[in-house]
Amino acid sequence: MSRPFETVLVANRGEIACRVQRTARRLGYRTVAVYSDADAGAPHVRQADVAVRLGPGPASESYLNVAAVLDAARRSGADAVHPGYGFLSERADFAAAVEAAGLVFIGPPAEAIRAMGDKAGAKRRMLAAGVPCAPGYLGDDQSDERLAAEAEALGLPLLVKAVAGGGGRGMRLVRQPGELAAALAGARREAESAFGDGRLMLERLITGARHVEVQVFADAHGQAVHLGERDCTAQRRRQKVVEEAPSPIVGEAMRATMGRDAVAAALAVGYRGAGTVEFVVDAEGRHFFLEMNTRLQVEHPVTEAITGLDLVEWQLRIAAGEPLPLTQEQIRFDGHAVEARLYAEDPYAGWTPQTGRVLRWRPADAGIRVDHGLAEGGEVPPYYDAMVAKFVAHGRDRADALRRLRRALADAVLVGPRHNARFLRELLAHPDFTGARMTTTRLDEWAAAGEPLLRRPQPPEAVWQLAAALLGGAGSLGSGLTRPDPGSVGGAGSLGSGLTRPDPALRDPALRAPALRPPPPLRPAGLARLDLVVDCAGERRTLRAPPDEVRVLELDADGRVRWWHDGMQRQAVALRDGDTLHLVVDGDVFAFAEASPWPGTDTASDASCARAPVAGVVAQVLVAPGDRVEAGQRLACVEAMKMEMWLEAGAAGLVRAVHAAAKDPVAAGALLVELELDA
């Protein structure tokens, strides 16, 4: 249903809710936010005209609660609903319920969502429309026996995919015959949990492939256009990491062919609004239909950058019944754009999601676009996707865009949960990326092979010394620069507590320039040195503080540090949170924790305790008290941010106690299973 409307409820959270609100306000619409208890103080809530609570933190009790969303629209006076992406955005029953409630759904018709949401049925439609598809099994017989027989006929490697899936959920890669049974069980379980539909399909894996997708738009008047392609090949575990437009492997002829097929796909299902037709491209440059995402994509900003168009504005205008703003011949492309997804995850520990309080968040001021929904003092909760921000650089050409994006990632400051900013910078500079030689499995292959890019970075010696100076040296906390009040804003104050103390040497003209000799120590005469035991990046060291090699020249109230080393003045950011000093140096974040003076307090390596690796929800518990387990045996599974993490027995023994059940929310480090280890 297309008709005019006045108030837009955004049925989503985080950066996409903020982004939709920006355009809606610019066009004169009133905006309504919805939120869970975990997001009560989030930016998307604060910037809306009205905000309505949906329920507790878990998505199933809030953002996925259709009745609560519709009630929020009724109570707030909204007459249109924008679903964003994820959550309910590709649920045909939600689109239908919005329309049935007399509201405008800012998206495609429910029938189009249903047609493309059934991945097997969608492929049948595409084949009928002449759109090329990869070989696979799309049948209704879902028995393991039939699936195994079809897998054998297709050959390996292949993908097991949820028929109702999307976003990489409910998908498993099978390379060896012995992996099929576990892949079927895992994909079915995840699909039922995420989509309420455990049906599966099989698809022959196109090896050495690239992921290239085409942005399409259709209106209610039978017209459709494409806005060029995006290359989303850089992925980990089938989740996109970096996207760019145009694709570095697509020329004009290929763009025209893929665009034609994408428009045909949209018209085949009576599409309306924004959609993305995803293709896999083999080593010979042949493209095969993967699926259609019946919503706005995370990576839509790169298309906006090269076309100069606002895709959310197009969505709003088409939903109001207007025709497409441009014809295919009027659409122009300018330059190159690259988007990097900033994830709250640890790329050096298997991409495990990270949660916790945001101690500092200062996006780069480098003339690029940063879409986010973060706020200092807020939390990154365990219930939702791990992406917390998007950095988008537009340049004259690809090299220009990549250079600008790397610099912006280095300049941005995010302290709190671990994140992937350094990994992104190194990936964007890697020869396989700059040379357009990536494939959809390259990052996973690097992880398995121990590629240096995925080895945890260690702080340079000078940064260890800077940590010593700030933790125990008179040049930081000792000579008038006191430790922050634990009750300071956000609970994590800067080290300076509002004091700025330039080095006295800088006021002496004889010491200013051009000499490279170090400034005199800030340590008062006679002050004893300290020995500090400090942990960082898996290493424990005893540091002498204050050090001789490093001088702290200035430390301001915001934690900005100017320091001297090896004849040069450098910049850093320092934040103290409890016993941990967070240092941001040259774009890298290191956490220096003073070791506890109490023996026996480190339980992290205790093999008798299986603890939740992150905050999340218990997906499965496979043992009960009294069970015997062997080293490496799976005990329980915790799901957080669309990822399953298994806890395994560290040694053989008996299960002494189980402290959680399936669907229980758990905190990071929570004790789930206790073992009585064999002597």
From TrEMBL:
<dbReference type="InterPro" id="IPR011054">
    <property type="entry name" value="Rudment_hybrid_motif"/>
</dbReference>
<dbReference type="InterPro" id="IPR005482">
    <property type="entry name" value="Biotin_COase_C"/>
</dbReference>
<feature type="region of interest" description="Disordered">
    <location>
        <begin position="479"/>
        <end position="522"/>
    </location>
</feature>
<keyword id="KW-0547">Nucleotide-binding</keyword>
<protein>
    <submittedName>
        <fullName>ATP-grasp domain-containing protein</fullName>
    </submittedName>
</protein>
<dbReference type="InterPro" id="IPR000089">
    <property type="entry name" value="Biotin_lipoyl"/>
</dbReference>
<dbReference type="Pfam" id="PF02786">
    <property type="entry name" value="CPSase_L_D2"/>
</dbReference>
<dbReference type="Pfam" id="PF00364">
    <property type="entry name" value="Biotin_lipoyl"/>
</dbReference>
<dbReference type="InterPro" id="IPR016185">
    <property type="entry name" value="PreATP-grasp_dom_sf"/>
</dbReference>
<feature type="domain" description="Biotin carboxylation">
    <location>
        <begin position="4"/>
        <end position="448"/>
    </location>
</feature>
<keyword id="KW-0092">Biotin</keyword>
<dbReference type="InterPro" id="IPR005479">
    <property type="entry name" value="CPAse_ATP-bd"/>
</dbReference>
<dbReference type="InterPro" id="IPR001882">
    <property type="entry name" value="Biotin_BS"/>
</dbReference>
<dbReference type="InterPro" id="IPR011053">
    <property type="entry name" value="Single_hybrid_motif"/>
</dbReference>
<dbReference type="InterPro" id="IPR050856">
    <property type="entry name" value="Biotin_carboxylase_complex"/>
</dbReference>
<dbReference type="InterPro" id="IPR011761">
    <property type="entry name" value="ATP-grasp"/>
</dbReference>
<keyword id="KW-0436">Ligase</keyword>
<dbReference type="Pfam" id="PF00289">
    <property type="entry name" value="Biotin_carb_N"/>
</dbReference>
<feature type="domain" description="Lipoyl-binding">
    <location>
        <begin position="601"/>
        <end position="676"/>
    </location>
</feature>
<dbReference type="Pfam" id="PF02785">
    <property type="entry name" value="Biotin_carb_C"/>
</dbReference>
<feature type="domain" description="ATP-grasp">
    <location>
        <begin position="123"/>
        <end position="320"/>
    </location>
</feature>
<dbReference type="InterPro" id="IPR011764">
    <property type="entry name" value="Biotin_carboxylation_dom"/>
</dbReference>
<keyword id="KW-0067">ATP-binding</keyword>
<dbReference type="InterPro" id="IPR005481">
    <property type="entry name" value="BC-like_N"/>
</dbReference>
